[in-house]
Specification:
The chain has four helices and no strands. The protein is mostly helical. The longest helix is centred in the middle third of the chain and has 20 residues. It is elongated.
Length: 84
């Protein structure tokens, strides 16, 4: 998760606060986390989708690589050996 460094303060009607608090409790998170997620979905959904698509493509490309893989024991010996 990103490091949170900026604070935003705003006021809400009591009914909205209560609804958010109930929703946060049902999702086992904070009201602040709900609001951050809502901001991301409303204002940055396209950017988030692009990032997910790029990650998915990278994973697919790595999975498609035909890399030499030995059995576990020889690989473990090679990775823990002091000899290069």
């Amino acid at each position: 998760m990103a490091v949170l460094t900026k604070r935003v303060q705003f006021v809400l009607p009591e009914s909205l606060w209560q609804n958010l608090a109930q929703q946060a409790q049902s999702q086992n998170c904070s009201v602040s986390a709900l609001i951050r997620e809502a901001v991301m979905q409303v204002y940055f959904a396209e950017q988030t989708q692009v990032q997910k698509a790029i990650r998915s493509q990278i994973v697919d490309e790595i999975a498609a690589m035909n890399l030499p893989v030995a059995d576990w024991e020889p690989m473990e010996r090679e990775s823990t050996s002091d000899e290069w």
